[in-house]
Amino acid sequence: MKVTAVVPVYNEEKTIKGALEVLKLSKDIDEIIVVDDGSTDKTPDIIKRLKTNKMEYIKLKRNIGKDNSLRNCAESINSDIVMLFDSDLIGLEEHHIKNMLNTLIEEKAGMVIGLRDKGNFLANLIMPYSP
Predict the structure, then answer these.
(1) How far apart are CA 13 and CA 1, in angstroms?
(2) Averaged in consecutive runs of 10 residues, what is the pLDDT profile of the chain (131 residues)?
(3) Cα(59)–Cα(31) distance, rounded to whole angstroms?
(4) CA-CA distances (angstroms) from residue 27 to 24, 97, 102, 105?
């Protein structure tokens, strides 16, 4: 079963490294596609330094928006499971990826959305209804 992680980015020089390093180390992810929506900061340099054989880097010439940048790469994906990761994720760990994938693989769900812990009981209670 092939799993592809898609990471749309735009000017994420402060956070992209953490998210990509976890995705690169994950044994459950076969391919990582990073779609750069025309970043003007140091994001491209960071991505190029972190690039591995299982990572494809698509650099768009200008900012066309997250939805359009995702559409730009969607047709080339040939995987059983596609996971979308925001590039500004903080605290992503391999067990998060594993838990989401296990839910899909065991057919407990057709789609999984990971919501972050807001660090506040009330905010965490409301999050599933208004992320």
Answers:
(1) 32
(2) 94 94 94 96 96 94 90 87 88 88 83 68 67 51
(3) 17
(4) 8, 10, 13, 15
Q: Which helix (H) or strand (E) holds 67?
A: helix 66-74
- The domain 3-93 is classified under which CATH number: 3.30.365.10, 3.90.550.10, 3.30.1300.10, 3.30.1370.10? 3.90.550.10
Note the maximum CA span of the chain.
43
Whole-angstrom CA distances from 2 to 78, 83, 84, 88, 105 are 8, 11, 14, 24, 11
Note the pTM of the prediction, 2 decimals: 0.85
In angstroms and rounded to an integer, the radius of gyration of the C-alpha atoms of the chain is 15
CA distances in angstroms from 119 to 25, 116, 122, 125, listed in the order given:
26, 9, 9, 11
d(CA 68, CA 62): 11
Tokens 């605290």 — which residue? 91
